[in-house]
Batch of 3 targets.
Target 1
Amino acid sequence: MSLLFISDLHLHPSRPEVTQAFYRFLSTHQTNKIEALYILGDFFEAWLGDDDDTPMYHEVIQRLHDYSQQGIPIYFMHGNRDFLIGERFARAANLTLLTDPTVITYNDENYLLMHGDSLCTKDSDYMAFRQMTRTAEWQQKILSLTLDERRSYASSLRKTSQSMTSLKAADILDVTPADVVRVMEEHSVRTLIHGHTHRPNTHTLTVNDSPARRIVLGDWETYGWYLTINGTTPSLEHFSI
């Protein structure tokens, strides 16, 4: 039995090849050897509310639902692009929403799961934006807009974000090492799994004077990245899209 972890697919109608790659991924990981699938944020390029009527999104929801019907639980953690996903989506896809961060225990080992954006604390502009957009007041205000108004707003945010990102140093856009250690110590774990940075790798570090590791999931662009944990052995893997 093994666990599966993915993040940062950024599914969108303009990227049908990634959607098809995700469907292939599901079809090749649907045996009784899969114990659960964890999606750690930015599954969609943007999620504007559970009332979004984009046909492709409804197809994806149905695929998730069908996958869960094989007896494979699906767990979903919000990212910085799909934090407006709510209970209506969860019911339709038959999945469980997770808080960020979440600790899971598998084969007597604790794993800390995060999207990863909250660890990029050197990016003060983003951290301020993140704090604002996670408030109930801001979300209610956005969801009160029409879908067309939300789409227009999201488009303007993406353009601004891309422009600002191009001007920032690489280390600002990555996680802050001290905060990684801090959050792992707070949760008493030796393994952290996250996405967001689009820099797939396994990093070794020291936490509470003991060896630890930070596993970064990759974004789905040229390759589809996923992590498997079989027993107590994590394996970061990829396939061509």
Target 2
Amino acid sequence: MREITPLTQNDCFTIFSRVKKEFFFPLHYHDEFELNFITNAKGAKRIVGDHIEIIDDLELVLVGPNVYHAWFTHHCKSEEIREITIQWHKDLFDDKLLRRNQLNFIRNMLERSLKGISFSRETIQALTPRLLALNQKSRFDSVLELMSILHDLSTSRDMRSP
């Protein structure tokens, strides 16, 4: 059940972009934060912690370290599920840095992610182009963009613990 992610100590984060017909990962957890963006998977089942939900065609969930999570095909009939998974070390943002006023919202969101966070359709639609383009950014620009995305998520309305 414990996943060893491919994220190395030399990486700030790793990103996977996949198109698939079904979900393969069983219920698992890992030490890293994980942001999952999923499109075209209406009817799939999400488990985060002790919460189970059937998802719609747009999904964006932040899962904190060591939180059990999984997505299952369930009633999804799509032939082209799109999934972008971003994983980063739990110590990427030092606690001293996160306690600064300008990062207060991100700190609160990361703390809240220990129960999982689901974002509203409006937030997902606003961030979709940036999430899709993140893989095209390189080195420092990709880290800045990830931080910017996390900031926008942290100030978004209607985030909820699933």
Target 3
Amino acid sequence: MFDPLCGWCYGAAALTRALSERLGPMVTLKLWPGTLFPEPVAVDAGMRAHIIEADQRIHELTGAEFGAAYTARMRSKAKPVTLWSVPLIAALAAVPPKGQLKFLEALQHAHYVEGRDLADMAAIMQLAAAAGLEARAFAATMQNPAHAQATNAWISQARELMARAGVAGFPGYVLEKGGRLTRLDHGAAYADPQSLVDRIQALGR
């Protein structure tokens, strides 16, 4: 479970990538989107301070780098910052499942390293084009009311899965086997992804 604008999910990007690469055909990695920001949120001074403090903790624990452009944007009192998860989830829903993790990483890099404004649809379109998606088809999908409904359904399914598995925040890792859900503690795996790989392999036997 993830949110594109969750700093801890960005910090877990290397872990998620390791799970995808090392587990191979044994496990199918599926992304389930939560919504930290279901509506546009204007980041005020208090929220900026909270985010900056959290980013420091994330960096210390995971080694994830927060770019100078992003940090300057978050610290600037002159430039408004709006956070909104839903358009980014809709963009991910427009990508074939096999390409979603790579596109999520591109969105995270654009936000947390390049400091780009992902509340701006033009920025999302540019990232989609850079990812090799056909611009007209992607734009048509994003504007289709049926796609908005599918995105909301994906979010609702993720919330239901979180409730069933007992996942309270992001990121969350859950193993599904034979209809049974097992919530995976990933705290130690930030620094040692192989430890979680080994646990999943053991549970999957």
